[in-house]
Amino acid sequence: MAGRDDLADYGDNAVLLFALELAVAVDDIHSVASTALTDCSNDKSCDLLWVDRDTGRAILAQGYMSQRSRASAPSSKAASLHQAVGWILGRKRDGVPDQLQSAADELWAAMDEGEIRSIELWYCHNLPESSNVRHEIDSTVNSAKALTAQHWPKIDLEISGREIGATSLDEMFAATQLDIAVEDSFEFRIPGYFTEDGKDWDALCTTISGRTLHDLYQNHKSMLFALNVRDYLGLIKSDKNINSNMRASAVEQPDRFFAYNNGLTILTREWSVRRSGRHFILKIDGASIVNGAQTTGVLGNIQESESGALDTVRVLVRFVKSADRAVLEKIIEYNNSQNRVEAADFRSNDATQDRLRREFSSIPEADYRGGRRGGARDVIERPANLISTKTAAQALACFHGSPEAAYHEIGRIWSDNDYYLRTFDPKVTARHVVFCYSLLKSIESHKALLTEKQDRTSRDEQVLDFLRLRGGGFMLASAIAANMESIAEIAIANPWGLRFRENLSPAQAVLRWQPVVSSLASFSSTLRGAVVPNFRTRPRIESALDEFSNQLSALISLSEGAFADFASRVEYAAAVEH
Fold first, then answer.
1. For the segment 423-465, what is each residue's pLDDT rounded down to a tens digit?
2. How far apart are the first and last CA of the chain?
3. Distance CA 492, CA 447 (A)
4. Which residues are CB-contacts of 303 (< 8 A; sequence separation ≥ 6)?
């Protein structure tokens, strides 16, 4: 975790967030932390519950950070995952604090609607991994399987457990170092080959058997994917899932696997080829799979009872070598970008995103990529000025009246044209994005300050309890945005024209919002009905917004000019057609 001082404030959860950032390629880990961390003393041993409907994936995790060297992490902490599984997957309500119940409600709703296909149980720490911990995790997985079968009998779920300790973190970290982690030499029997080369790179293309790839994976596991940003996602049992279909074709139609599959790209340091009868022997020094982790994981996990077809399976492989670091970075980046297409990727070349990227070049200390993702190193050396495209979209959706879409339907914002145009109106400007984005970030900052505050008042506790609810911060941002005419003391014909008078950096803009957020967060209890028991019912959202507006009107009538300083820093610039 060297170089990630921004995670230090999360204490034991720092290692947990770091692992999550690496495993799921999170762009804005602080926004995710604000939502996914259960963040309470009575958390029933569940430190984090991350739910992603877009990928059908949920992660329930426990974190531990040791301040001294130990032989292994305490297995008792791994055993406590039993408690978390019992409460969360057992659908228990009695005795559960609101913030944890809010997290559980989110998972339950997603599972009830068939949106979750895999649940992962993690124990993350900074110590060596051990068999004792593995035993506890395996036991917890069995409990989770029993509970989900009881409460969601019609859903075919993949339940898995994982200890992420120092070794696993080192392997994940290796993805940023451009080092080939598996340094062994390998020999493959191949039917033939051809080569290509270009400036500073060479490639050899051939086929290998499914059995060869299976054995390679069994011997080296995830170390093969040290340069693959997304690793092996796991076999999710769904006909709609490519991994499940891939396994079916390997077992049931092995002679067609080559035609159905895209193949692999493997980085290596060197190779040599010699003839052996009618075939050739390819020797390589070192191997790192940068494209094809899914293929390798699927074939590598086929059980022995079904592995007879693997000798028939043929897999296309492209071996690539280069001594140029810049070339290697591009090979990794471009090959990884093919592994999983995010919804935002479809809009990265959109005219609005292209224009916003150009406009952001004049915003101080701001890096906005508009759907274009960075390389592997961005996860480790996260640019401090990076504006996550996802968080920007959520901020805009909140500001313009759709907080529930910002929370539950972020993928739809990018994939559905109507949603997209409501979120990224053609009149949107970079300075307006900063205005909205900094409001959401200021709310996250206020929550963090209250969490760290030692002498919280009863009002502080009420505000913090609300912000810990799933969607609470989004709802508060939407409520503040809905009252901008009263707060900024200006007539607003079109909210897309709102911005700060100065061309501020996002960090500076967050500071401008802080007095407003600190004051208006005190009324957040009026918004509770919008997010409890779930943040999806539009009439309850509108009712809560009306009540918030009434309380704000009463405050302004009693204290005229309460936000005068903030108002003097805001302007309405008539939106310009582009």
1. 999 999 999 999 999 999 999 999 999 998 999 999 999 999 9
2. 43
3. 29
4. none
Task: Look at residue 345 and tell me whether its pLDDT is greater than 80.
Answer: no
State residue 41's pLDDT score: 58
Q: How far apart are CA 472 and CA 463, in angstroms?
A: 10
Determine contact, residues 528/539, Cβ cutoff 8 Å: no
Q: Grade residue 358 by pLDDT with cuts at 50, 70 and 90.
A: very high
pTM of structure: 0.70
Quote the CA–CA distance of 254 and 266 in Å, as a whole number.
22
Which two structure tokens, joined as six digits, stand for 41? 């003393």
> Which has the closest alpha carbon to 456: 444, 471, 442, 446?
446
Q: Which residues pair with 370 in a beta bridge?
A: none
Run of H or E residues at 171: helix 166-173
Residues 181, 290: contact at Cβ < 8 Å?
Answer: no
Phi-psi label, residue 473: left if phi above 0, alpha if psi -120 to 50, beta otherwise? alpha
Instruction: Go through 289-299 and write b for each residue having 16 or more CB atoms within 10 A of its CB, e for each that does not.
Output: bbbbbbbbbbb
CA-to-CA dists, residue 485 to 59, 475, 549, 550, angstroms:
41, 18, 11, 14
Residue reference for tokens 């760290």: 452
Please state the φ and ψ torsions of residue 315, each to the nearest 5 degrees.
-125, 130
Helix (H, G, I), strand (E, B) or coil at 234: coil
pLDDT band for position 535 (50/70/90)?
confident
| pLDDT at position 343 | 53
CA angle, 383 then 384 then 386, to 5°: 65
